[in-house]
């Protein structure tokens, strides 16, 4: 179990455990549009949904998770949290979930979404085919062919409300390609934060937030620590409402 200040995460069976990427995204995701509803794509243990429940007044927080063990633990973590009445996890793949929310408009005879979300978050899989392991559940949680970036961006375009914000954390090496994919779907960067482990290390991750409005994005950098377990003031400020020892 991983204990945060206001909730805990059971992660005994889930392939992907609580990690820095998820905590960063949950703490960083912009909530400036005061969301009514939130969608967590590929929820795993439910970490992102729980962090956003703590940070927001959103009345509806939906999560989708395809892997059965992770789904079961996500449901348990939601039920055992202070916000169980606002959280719901669907045992489904992204394509299935999108299909369920589509219906034919009788006037235009075209598909339209019956529900859209003010905030969509995802900590998507991103290791490539070359790194497959014998652990199928972990691979499903962590490999890009389980949820290609193209599919994620397309779903975000369909599911995002007019003033919605779509946030992800991805490898820095994929940033340029992901932003280009998003622009093809008319989603434009609102904020870009590049993450380094230490001041002298290479940029490893990109936190990206998108909206339907084309604008000049805010671009900055976050350094996690100056030495082992010596965290920067910026990282402490970002995560102090969650980590017990911050």
Automatic annotation (TrEMBL):
Transmembrane segments: none annotated. One of its GO terms (molecular function) is methyltransferase activity. PANTHER family: TRNA1(VAL) (ADENINE(37)-N6)-METHYLTRANSFERASE. HAMAP family: tRNA_methyltr_YfiC. Its EC number is 2.1.1.223. Belongs to the methyltransferase superfamily. tRNA (adenine-N(6)-)-methyltransferase family. The keyword NAD does not apply. This is tRNA1(Val) (adenine(37)-N6)-methyltransferase. Keywords: Cytoplasm, Methyltransferase, S-adenosyl-L-methionine, Transferase, tRNA processing. Specifically methylates the adenine in position 37 of tRNA(1)(Val) (anticodon cmo5UAC). Residues 37-139 form the Methyltransferase small domain. It is found in: Cytoplasm. Pfam families: MTS (PF05175). InterPro entries: DNA_methylase_N6_adenine_CS, SAM-dependent_MTases_sf, Small_mtfrase_dom, tRNA_Adenine-N(6)_MTase, tRNA_adenine-N6_MeTrfase. It comes from the Bacteria. GO terms for biological process: methylation. It catalyses: adenosine(37) in tRNA1(Val) + S-adenosyl-L-methionine = N(6)-methyladenosine(37) in tRNA1(Val) + S-adenosyl-L-homocysteine + H(+).
